[in-house]
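[AMINO ACID CHAIN]
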Amino acid sequence: MRKFFLTLCLGLSLLIFPFCLITSLPAMAAVNSEMVKSEVDLQGAIDSFLTSLPKDYYTVMKIDTLKNIVKKDNAFLIDVRQPSEYASGHIPNAINIPLQTLTTHLDKIPKNRPVILYCTTGYRSALGVMSLRILGYTNIRAFPPSIQGWKAAGETLEK
């Protein structure tokens, strides 16, 4: 999760850096104390978030555990891969909401039962979990073995 967060920060800095080059130096020198304070607040918020992560990082690591949660708790499975990937085979009963469209499909994501996201390798599902957690979803987890782990275990795919 830390690696993901650092990658996210790097990506954001690459987006911000060109803007800084365009901005004139006098304007950059005019940073006021409010901006400095908000940066400190942001750093504190990020630090609080990272230190509050549970040991399992909101994950389901084993196929048997995933099956039990689906069966006993009526978990809602979301495949966050692209539609073409989903069409090539997905975990039975999963719906497809590509990662880039999660926020436009919040009405399809229940808040009253467990929701488990998966993708191909775990990267997109981690992004999805983080995004939905930020939006206030407390019932979201990821299945990091993802579709590769599911297939490697010889589990059936639905098409």
The chain has two domains: 2-51, 63-152. The longest helix spans residues 2-22.
